[in-house]
Structures are given as C-alpha cells and as structure tokens.
Design brief:
Elements: H1 3-10, E1 14-17, H2 22-38, E2 42-48, H3 67-82, E3 91-97, H4 100-107, E4 113-117, H5 131-139, E5 144-147
Parallel strand pairs: 1-2, 1-4, 2-3, 4-5
Helix pairs in contact: 4-5
C-alpha cells in the first residue's frame, strides 16, 4: 500500500444521520459502538433544508432565526444524550444544508459505512422504512445499516 492509499484508508469513517428522532438516536448509539469496535472516526450529520411548512409555521419565523443554528443545537443535544465522557473515539459534527437523503448519499462516497434510523420525524412514521433510510439503502455508495428504534413505532 502506498502512503497515499494509507492516508485515504485512514480517512474512511462511519457516517450517521441524526435528526433527533428516537430511531436516529438508536442509530447514533449503534454507530458509536461500531466506531469503538473498528477505531473508525464517526461523523454525525444533521441535514436541514429551510421550508416554513416543514417547521409547522403558518407565518414566517423572526428575521433573526437561523435554521442552521437550530440544526446545530439539535445535533449537539443528540450527541450529548448518547455519548459518555469515557467514549474515546474521534467524532466529527456536520451540519449540512440540504435534504437528508442526498446529503447522506454524497457523504457515502468517502465513507466505509452509513448508519440511519428506520424513520425520522417525517409524516409516515408507521412505514417499515422512512424515505431517507430507503433512499440510503438504494443509492449510497457503501454499506448502509438501518436501525429500528425502541419507541412506540419500533415494533409495528
């Protein structure tokens, strides 16, 4: 292996999509365990796309509202809920503007593994797979693990 190949191999990582839903937190817990087992860095990703209808607002938010900042706070909250002080892995936080499915697909080109929850906060939480997890399974460029949550929709 050349040094360039070694560098590329060492930069491979586990990408996990997090939206704050219970299945995404379960995916983050699983990805954290996998990163500990393999020594791979963990990239925790929150994607956002501004749409007033997505937030349930009938009127526009205040002019100083920053959806990226809100996504960052939610990502920090999710990571804090799952990680413990003893976790000794490299964690990268990414807040990316865009829809989750194509964001994760793009990141999969340089990842060893993509991990997602079976559902997010979408409207059709009773389905076996949500739209993002289905897109990842069919379009990502690396293996994808879909984690079912343990909440009320997990056993439907």
């Amino acid at each position: 292996m050349t040094s360039a190949e070694g560098t590329a191999a060492s930069q491979r990582r586990i990408v996990v999509g997090v939206d704050g839903s219970e299945p995404s937190l379960a995916a983050l817990r699983w990805a954290l365990s996998q990163a500990e087992l393999t020594g791979a860095p963990l990239e925790v990703v929150s994607a956002w796309k501004w749409s007033a209808s997505n937030w349930g607002w009938e009127t526009l938010p205040p002019p100083d509202y920053d959806p990226a900042d809100e996504a960052r706070r939610q990502l920090d909250k999710a990571i804090s809920a799952v990680l413990t002080p003893g976790d000794a892995i490299e964690i990268r936080r990414s807040v990316v503007e865009g829809y989750a499915a194509p964001v994760l697909e793009a990141l999969s080109k340089t990842a060893d593994l993509v991990v997602v929850g079976s559902h997010g906060h979408g409207e059709l939480v009773g389905l076996l797979l949500g739209s993002v997890s289905e897109h990842c399974v069919t379009h990502c460029h690396c293996p994808v693990v879909v984690i079912r949550g343990t909440g009320r929709h997990a056993h439907q």
